[in-house]
Amino acid sequence: MDKFEKLTAIAAPMPLINIDTDMIIPKQFLKTIKRSGLGVSAFYEMRYDMDGNENPDFVLNQDAYRDASILVAGDNFGCGSSREHAPWALLDFGIKCVISTSFADIFFNNCFKNGILPIVVTPDQLAILMDDAQKGSNARMVVDLENQVVESSDGVQIPFDVDPHRKHCLLNGLDDIGLTMEKAGAIEAFETQMAEARPWV
Amino acid sequence: MAGRTLYDKIWDDHVAHQADDGTCLLYIDRHLVHEVTSPQAFEGLRMAGRPVAAPDKTIAVPDHNVPTTWDREDGIDNEESRIQVEALDKNAREFGVVYYPVNDIRQGIVHIVGPEQGWTLPGMTVVCGDSHTATHGAFGALAHGIGTSEVEHVLATQTLIQKKSKNMKVEITGKLAPGVTAKDITLSVIGATGTAGGTGYVIEYCGEAIRSLSMEGRMTVCNMAIEGGARAGLIAPDATTFAYCKGRPEAPKGDMWDTAQAYWETLFSDDDAHWDKVITIKGEDIAPVVTWGTSPEDVLPITASVPAPADFEGGKVDAAARSLDYMGLTPGTKLQDVKIDAVFIGSCTNGRIEDLREAAKIVEGKKIKDNVTTAIVVPGSGLVRLQAEEEGLADIFKAAGFEWRLAGCSMCLGMNPDQLGPEVRCASTSNRNFEGRQGRGSRTHLMSPAMAAAAAVAGKLTDVRDVK
Fold first, then answer.
1. Does A26 reside within a domain?
2. End-to-end CA separation in angstroms for chain B
3. Which H helix or E strand runs over A195?
4. B432 and B342 in contact (C-beta within 8 Å)?
5. Would residue A159 count as lying in a domain?
6. pLDDT of B468 higher than 90
7. pLDDT tens digit string along B124-141?
8. Which residue among A23, A105, A200 sits closest to B260, beta carbon to beta carbon?
9. What's the confidence (pLDDT) of residue B22?
10. Chain B nearest C-alpha distance from A97 (Å)
């Protein structure tokens, strides 16, 4: 996993609420056995018409936002299916940070596993950032994970919370499995104890 | 010691390690695996040279991609689907996990197979790379969906990195009215709380109406906890639970059963347990419901009319307008006047024997309406199919004009050929009415098996209570 560096980037506005993971990456793209290559299919049904042509109304098809690395999105982003193909598709498109008032639980977890930072802000803060994102490619938002602050293009600073362990892993690009394996002793001790307490498991 | 909730108790019994910041390694008792969300995880193990930590607690079954037509023994036509199922086949055998291949009679939807085989038991932690893992909460097991990175983590370590969620109690008091089922309960709860209402919580469903449900009904309720945003849904185990589990192939036997049951009987929320949120709904107030929009929270009683965007507030105004446009519905139209083109009975929400019995009872001796051009019944597992055939349910469905299929996820998400075309309107017993869920441009109305059966016969959304 890549380290999450301080990000200065174009932010794309997606004010629709309840954007589900079926919207982010529809079923037909879940048949892959790889993690890569999904970016071209991200938001497929909103992004392309029935003939596969780009829908000019969709934000990521507009020239100003083709290089966006941040999404500013409506409430409950990433709800529905657990498919990690959703963050894989976003990452492959180039999205490294999603800002919303809330995220669905599994999607939120999946982001951290892939080096994407999901940021939760208040409705007022989201309104400020949504307006800022509407400014297009002339505006650059700054996401500073180290100092836990988002800065709009005109300098409004919005602090955010992040779990310290997850922050550490993102900043350093750390693999969870390696870290857990360091605790193999504790897991083995638990298994021994459990074999006595709940032998039917 | 302060009282604990059922969730607290299961959590406490599975913490293998706790860091200073509260991050825990939660031990996983059962890891269910299907072909869509696992290939990258097994590949990760292979690259790192890691084995599966507990292959005897890892259960794999292909379900999402498998065809449900009777010619499926001939193989899967779609190349990508075939490759994905073959990858599971290879991975299951190479890593030595428990495996039910496509042509095994025990094959089916992973969330139906787990309980049916007795893998899922009270007090366990159960995970799967699938959001509907919440289903297993019906047994009083802490069960939730995970992403593929977490699948790899569990395969490698049999643990999951977790922080504890908050406790929410959803109480359904009293009795259900005739024609009202578990599906109506779970949809009504989501209608009341919204799809983000459960975010950050584990829900425990309780109350007389929940207690009175069969295990099948309880699984339907918990299955859709995720649609309310909750990490998991739970129902405390009781005599109904024990009766369902006893004698299942993987359930404990003899003295071991008694030891297990003694432990299971301690799994309930204490009277003085702390709840972060409580929702109470009167069972008598729940009507047969359908969804009208493209979010599972878009729920209304079948007697209602299609709402207008102006009926909502905030971001929901635009979302509702978009939903109505997508669904091709006009505000003010009576839901019972909405004609349908297709009916799907099946899925991990409603693909169990009781669901098929409910639907069969409605269609028995009747024919599906001419305008319904697609009507399929897809049992949740091979064993559900056999039982339904033995009980004569399959014959009832076939006589009414339904296609009777083999087990799989099928038209719930259409990863196999069971998909709907653009603007095709479906009465569906599945769990998601998202845009494009059953096929690009298709229009899904979620409802109970009885309501879907009634819709099939009437050719439109119908109040099951009016079916003679």
1. yes
2. 56
3. helix A184-197
4. no
5. yes
6. no
7. 999 999 999 999 999 999
8. A200
9. 86
10. 18
Residue A112 main-chain phi, psi, to 5 deg: -60, -30
Q: ipTM, 2 decimals? A: 0.95
Question: First and final CA of chain A: distance in angstroms?
Answer: 34
- CB-CB under 8 Å, B315 with A17: yes
Return the residue of A nearest to B258 by Cα: A200
Q: For B17-52, how does the pLDDT look when each residue is reduced to its tens digit (9 = 90+)?
A: 999 888 999 999 999 999 999 999 999 999 999 999
Residue contacts between A and B (CB atoms, under 8 Å): 191
User: pLDDT tens digit string along B340-383?
Assistant: 999 999 999 999 999 999 999 999 999 999 999 999 999 999 99
- Encode pLDDT of B418-434 as tens digits: 999 999 999 999 999 99
Evaluate whether residue A1 is within a structural domain.
no
Q: Cα angle at B428 between B422 and B60, to 5 degrees? A: 100
User: Which residue of chain A is at minimal alpha-carbon distance from B196?
Assistant: A76
Domain containing A146 equals 6-197
Distance of CA B455 to the CA centre of its chain: 21
Instruction: Determine whether B254 is exposed, middle or buried from the number of CB atoms within 10 Å of its CB (0-12, 13-18, 19+).
Output: exposed
Burial class, B442, CB count within 10 angstroms (exposed 0-12 / middle 13-18 / buried 19+): buried
For A31-48, b/e burial (b = at least 16 CB within 10 A) is: bbbebeebeebbbbbbbb
A45 and B440 in contact by Cβ < 8 A?
Answer: yes
Which residue type occupies B346? G
The yes-or-no verdict on residue B2 having pLDDT over 90 is: no
Write out the E strands in B178-334. Answer: 201-206, 232-234, 277-282, 289-291, 299-301
Using CB atoms, pick whichever of A27, A82, A194 lies closest to residue B131. A82
Q: Is B262 exposed, middle or buried, given 0-12, 13-18 or 19+ CB atoms closer than 10 A?
A: exposed
The CA distance from A76 to the nearest CA of chain B, in Å, is 6
The minimal CB distance from A74 to the residues B81, B158, B315 is found for: B315
- Reference A194, options B28, B128, B24; nearest CA is B28
CATH number at residue A141: 3.20.19.10
Q: Report the number of distinct structural domains present in chain A.
A: 1
Under DSSP, the state recorded for B335 is G
Nearest CA of chain B to the CA of A159: how many Å? 21
Residues with Cβ within 8 Å of B390's Cβ and at least 6 positions away in sequence, in order, are: none
